[in-house]
Amino acid sequence: MEPQESYTPVEIPLIGKVVSHYKILEHLGGGGMGIVYKAQDLRLERPAALKFLPPELTRDQDAKQRFVHEARAASGLQHNNICVVYDIDETPDGQMFIAMEYLEGETLKKKIDRGPLQIEDAVDIAIQIAQGLTKAHEHGIVHRDIKPANVMITTDGVAKIVDFGLAKLSGRTMLTKTGSTLGTAAYMSPEQTRGEPADQRTDIWSVGVVLHEMLSGKRPFDAEYENALMYSIVNAEPEHITALRTGIPMELERIVGKCMAKAPKDRYQHADELIVDLRTIHPSTTSSSRSGSPRTTMVPARRIRTYLIPTAVVLAVVAFGAWFFLAKPSGEMRELRGKSIAVLPFSPFGRTFDDSVFADGIHDDILTQLSKISGLRVIARTSMVLYRDSKKTPRQIADELDVGYLLEGSTRRSGGKIRITAQLIKTADEGHLWAETYDRNNSDVFAVQSDIAQRISSSMEAILTPAEKAAVEEIPTRSTEAYNYYLQGKHYWDNYLDSAGNAKAAELYEKAAEKDPTFTQAFAMAAVANAAMYSFFRDHTTGRIARITSALKRARDLNPDDPVVHYAQGNHILDFDTARGKMERARLALAEYQEGLKTRPNWSDLHYGVAEIQRLEGAWPEARESIRKVFSLNPLGLAPEWGPWTVSRWLREYEVARREIDEYISRHPDDVEGYGDKVNVLINGFGDLEGARAVLEYGMKLPLNQGRDRRLLITTNDFWRVNYPEGKYQEALACLAAQPGDDITAHWTRWMRKGMTHVALNQRATAVACFDTALSYSERLPSGVRKNLRTGIALAWRGHHERAALELEEAGKGDLWWPERKELEIAQAQAAVLAADTDQALSQLEQLMSKPGYLTVWDLRLDPVYNPLRSNPRFQALVAKTK
């Protein structure tokens, strides 16, 4: 971590000394509020940065109070684009300091000093800064000193906002004297120069100034004297960046100008609005791989759908999961509610990073213990994190989750002692069934968790089997140090989906395993986290594979019956055991997941594993029941790539599918993915193009939901699906104007659809060029079914029918999952249509329509590809069907 700005530090003889549990290693520099040192955390064996208030400022009670507020504000912020604050403490002689994340890299200031940044890099960094500010603003925290010296760019390209030393909690007592000019004047907003109160729009102004400087290499406002500088900030207009540098898009200049509007009301009102517009400049720069956020997908561990959401706000919630209760009589529903419990996030007594990690770990461990009891329905963690700091009453929460009981609690850890408080609430009358405070040694933490789980079971009249009692009483590790590392690993695993966070989780799980070579779950989760690095972050190094294999082997050697081991093994079979055929891998993985459910029947990730295999095998009714179970346990988790409505659509139960997707949207009105799924139901099941268009137009108006924002995809994909069958070909082409990012398949789809639209317009030469471009993308795919399939489709539209048939035939020889088989069969039917092989096309379509599947009557009625068949009686008989 480099010095944040030029500063002459007060001499403090600390190098080599130990302060609290930190050994001071070297002096890094200073900022406006203190001196920064590199240190080693002796307790957790990690580097840290310590920021000390200079001695003369320590005597100033106002400055000291400002320092305390800085630490309290910053310690509550957990985001990958914000430097993590670990602790606040004071030396024996009264010097206060903050312990924070040590960052390898350089300041943005140093980066700019070398010259203007590439447009792509500048936009990416601005998005990351805005993402961090979004998190701070959601917590009522305004930085008030955003400038290049306060942004670190790590060695892997992550932008980190540092030094909330000037942060002010909105609505709190202003700590600075009226008119004081904290921070660097060149980045101050007009209201700051006037000494007026600053809100989040001040930070947005500063981001605009920083972005201007990144692009042009010079500050938009500069003067020799501070008064002249402040005058220009208030009264002068900066030089346009398009005049300072060629190649700047006009839209980017507009964005910078809006950030730096003199009146706050004319700027972006929230940082996420700025992110939306910045992504229109460079859509592939989404920073999604760098943004830390809570995992709230249904299946966090397998990362089936790795989108990120910085805030999870339930805007509208209905009574729980109608799809789960469709066939259940009211008496059974009441009984299920009476055996259902939600565990609210535990509140840490302190506000440090370690306090939060411990509280989250206890919360997760208690959920794990309860999930082992088959007589209970336990709501998953990913639904419960949405209620952190919620002001809702127990009754409101219970009604939203359809549970009869709530557990709430708090944690405190100091030295070798812990305090855990817990109370069980019966939601019908909000009466407290029991409450307990546990003051124990660190080593007793598992006994406390076991006691809480057993008392809950007894209070809810759920009888534990001997095996369940033994599982609940099991002690996973006797090493406090190993357990601490494990909790930290879980923190990074649960809260960050990016590569850096995932790698950190793997590292911490491995440290836990190193500290206790008998810690089964640590080895199992190390295997899972390393496998995610391989599969999702493309770390295909030999070392990574060795870490996966050795960790999983050790976990299986220690306890092959542990449910976490079964989960890790099931994942490993599906993802890595490629020597076996897909169906054999599916059978073996399914057996692992089902074995895991025997001892942990309420773990939604295992249920999803079962559902996913059933989907891949084509066992639709079973897959639907399994995915409904996932939604039952995790009612507020965002859906993975498919939901019960998807299977209902394949089963051609369209009314059920519509009811199910409507229930999901009512719980997640800000999840654009849900609207895309509803479009599928409306078009495929009902041919309702007008309704689909209305859904898409509504979805386009939704606020940004970081990492899951599909507005680009809606523009390039779903709107095309409405315009193309309606014959609105120019509008369809306009939908395909935007680039879809780096995904090869997305590019292939875009060019195929452009070509198909030009065919409909009788623009054959242009269509051929589009299909040739699509072929260039399919050729880039790795050898296998996907490549053969997409190449065959493109060749069929290109007019190379014999080559297309050979490619599709080759795809059919591959080891196919059921969805791949159905996609191939539809492609072969369409290829036959394009080749004017009417009998073959009709035979294949009749076979496809004779059983449930992807293809629907409305596909046949609406898709122009089938136009050559419309006068054929056999085809007319097909489209006359109601399903």
Task: Write up this protein.
The chain is α+β, with helices and mostly antiparallel strands and 883 residues long. Among the domains are: 18-101, Phosphorylase Kinase, domain 1, CATH 3.30.200; 107-281, Transferase(Phosphotransferase) domain 1 (Transferase(Phosphotransferase), domain 1, Orthogonal Bundle), CATH 1.10.510; 665-879, Serine Threonine Protein Phosphatase 5, Tetratricopeptide repeat (Alpha Horseshoe). Helix content is 52%, strand content 10%. It contains 39 helices and 17 strands. Strands 1-2-3-4-6-5 form a six-stranded antiparallel beta sheet, with helices on one face. Strands 12, 13, 14, 15, 16 and 17 form a six-stranded mixed beta sheet that branches. α18 runs antiparallel to α19, α20 packs parallel to α22 (563-576) and α36 (818-834) packs antiparallel against α37.
Short key terms for the protein model shown above:
single chain, 883 residues, alpha+beta, Phosphorylase Kinase, domain 1, Transferase(Phosphotransferase), domain 1, Serine Threonine Protein Phosphatase 5, Tetratricopeptide repeat, 6-stranded antiparallel beta sheet, 6-stranded mixed beta sheet, globular, disordered N terminus
As a whole number of angstroms, the C-alpha radius of gyration is 29 Å
Percent range for β-strand residues: 5-15%
Q: Which spans have pLDDT < 50 for at least 5 consecutive residues?
A: 2-11, 166-183, 283-335, 705-713
Categorize the overall geometry: globular
C-alpha end-to-end distance: 63 Å
Q: Could you report the average pLDDT, rounded to the nearest whole number?
A: 83
